[in-house]
From TrEMBL:
Catalyzes the reversible conversion of ribose-5-phosphate to ribulose 5-phosphate. Keywords: Isomerase. Homodimer. Belongs to the ribose 5-phosphate isomerase family. GO terms for cellular component: cytosol. GO terms for molecular function: ribose-5-phosphate isomerase activity. The active site is at 103 (proton acceptor). The gene is rpiA. CDD domains: RPI_A (cd01398). This is Ribose-5-phosphate isomerase A.
Length: 220
């Protein structure tokens, strides 16, 4: 990561603070961009936070922020997370860090999803440069991989990686994601798939895109 990219991540995180209200229970994503936001959260008087991964939960706890159970919070007002790719309609690819399933759950359970990206993350079409991560039940790995090949993809097993839920990840290159919603639903229909990294149903409401010239607020 370049210094410039790190500065952009920090700028996007700083811009996100304006959307966080005192007393809120905030949904908090996972990754290096969101880590910049987590570092700023002590400035805000949160009621608590719902974490999208064990790593994020540990970081929040270390800062004295109460990590709450999504089953007890009800619908959240706001979820903030990064992404690996974002298109012009705010469909996303997520899961580079392997936390896609809980990220999608918290995004789905939130009224608003704000996505923080640096300029390198915006693309014309999802899945051309970055593979689609898919969380798979370990026993179904080979079966799911064969189904993905039939769909035109090239699945690569993320060796040595186990998700927070004890599952494995297949990173799928070459999938045709021209219609993100259709591909998200098609992947969900493969038995053994826990979750896929296309966020079209739960795309971002607002993208805060940091560039060399400042942070742009993009709304669909
Ligand atoms: C983790 C994710 C992250 O949001 C995504 O990988 C972006 O990470 P970073 O902010 O480090 O570039 O989906 O599962």
């Amino acid at each position: 990561m370049t210094d410039n990219q790190q500065q952009q991540k920090q700028a996007a995180a700083q811009a996100a603070l304006a959307y966080i209200e005192t007393g809120m229970i905030l949904g908090v994503g996972t990754g290096s961009t969101v880590n910049c936001l987590i570092d700023l959260l002590p400035q805000v008087q949160l009621k608590g936070a719902v974490a999208s991964s064990n790593v994020t939960a540990e970081k929040l706890t270390a800062l004295g922020i109460e990590v709450m159970d999504l089953n007890l919070t009800g619908t959240l007002d706001l979820y903030i997370d990064g992404a690996d790719e974002v298109d012009s309609q705010h469909n996303l690819i997520k899961g580079g860090g392997g936390a896609l399933t809980r990220e999608k759950i918290v995004a789905a359970a939130s009224r608003q999803f704000i996505c923080l990206v640096d300029a390198s993350k915006t693309v014309n079409q999802l899945g051309v440069d970055f593979p689609v991560p898919i969380e798979v039940l370990p026993q179904a790995r080979s079966y799911v991989a064969r189904q993905l090949v039939e769909l035109g993809g090239e699945p690569v097993y993320r060796e040595g990686f186990v998700t927070d839920y004890g599952n494995v990840i297949l990173d799928v290159y070459g999938l045709d994601v021209r219609d993100p919603l259709a591909m998200e639903q098609r992947l969900n229909n493969i038995v053994g798939v826990v979750c896929n990294g296309i966020f079209a149903v739960n795309r971002a409401d607002i993208v805060l895109k940091a560039t060399a010239d400042g942070v742009q607020t993009l709304r669909t």
